[in-house]
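Cast an eye over my tokenised protein here and flag anything odd:

===
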Amino acid sequence: MNDDLLLTFYGDDFTGSTDVMEQLEMGGVPTVLFLDVPTPEQFALFPRVKAVGIAGISRSMTPAQMDAELPDKFKALAQLGAPFFHYKVCSTFDSSPTVGSIGHAIEIGWQHFQPRIVPLIIGAPFLRRYVIFGNLFARVGEVTYRLDRHPTMSQHPITPMHEADLRVHLAKQTDRQIGLIDYWHMLSKSPHELDAFVDARVADGDQILVFDTMDDDHLTTIGRILWERRQETPIFLVGSSGVERALTLYLQQSREEVQPSSMKSPGAASQMIVMSGSAAPGTRDQIQFALDRGFVGIRLDVPALIDPATEENTRMRTISEAMAVLDQGNSVLLYSALGPDDPIIAQTRQHAERIHLSPPETAQKLGLQQGRITKALIEQSGIRRVCIAGGDTSGHTARQLGIFALQAIQTIAPGAPLCHARSSDPQFDKIEIALKGGQNGFEDYFWAILQGKAHQQEVN
């Protein structure tokens, strides 16, 4: 085991990976996030890190694509010898048997790590995601929804959530036995009794163990359970950034050695580029907030961008229009949709069916086009601060820019930090970039990125 490292992780999308990095940095664990398996030369650029991650895009992959993507990544991270390996998934558990299968990822991980048990830690109270008696809830404004009734996740265009019970949902993706450590177990049992109960669940045949997570006390308890078992084997964890929050809360409470966070504001920028591929209500509100404060919006012609017959001309026209905005000294905000009810979503789906594109192919096609547009705008404008909204869009854009590593430099809103990028292309090396999930961030998020300040208001 490598005593210099605490944890390695693979994120199933880019925005979720930056969320993990932020939680670790805030907890005093220096972290680097790579976009692929690093070369020895790339790894040597970060000698003082205690956590190492790889940002992936397996959330949008079929099981066959995951078979091609994950084994080499898992192997490379396992070889670093950290006591914990975390397969990071979204706190809204985006997955299905055919797209982003968490169950299939567990099967691949099982082959590499041979775990006694896989802890499944999905709740992230700091992101307003809660698990109680195995059921997942998410809060929007002042309303907390069971996930199968959530206004966004129940209507997700790729992986709609029709079941809030994590055990039932995951059972459609794996045949492994799934157990639960619930709120009452954590409330009523002493640490010794709880440890014995976990062992009993393993003895009874549970292979995946869901943990309820309602607050930081639950996370601290989970962190203790994980930390005290770290010598057993490299522990294979699946979950949200609640995993990192759990570990760092416990380490801070138990006074294990941690460092103060090194994140600080880089100050305001004169201009920035925002590219949004998210249809979430939160992103819709953030777009409107920014437009009301001087950002110039450009709605993307999504059907034309995904169509081979029109994609190139549409992309070039969009770049030209955006450059005209930037040349006037304004910040530009390009977006594919305004919320989950935007008619463009149905129009895009219908057009994709006509040209025989599946939903995953459509998402990948759009993400690729958005990445190409963003790359061209940075090349032509020289702007060094960029924000990307949406997991698929973030992944494709980062790869287009040749980014191989990220480090968090400032917390803007939970789960969506501003990062310092390292790129193999000098044009994009050391740019400042924020990669955010659709529901992450507050109403003033894009404006806060421009100003280099933490959030001021919460999304309603």
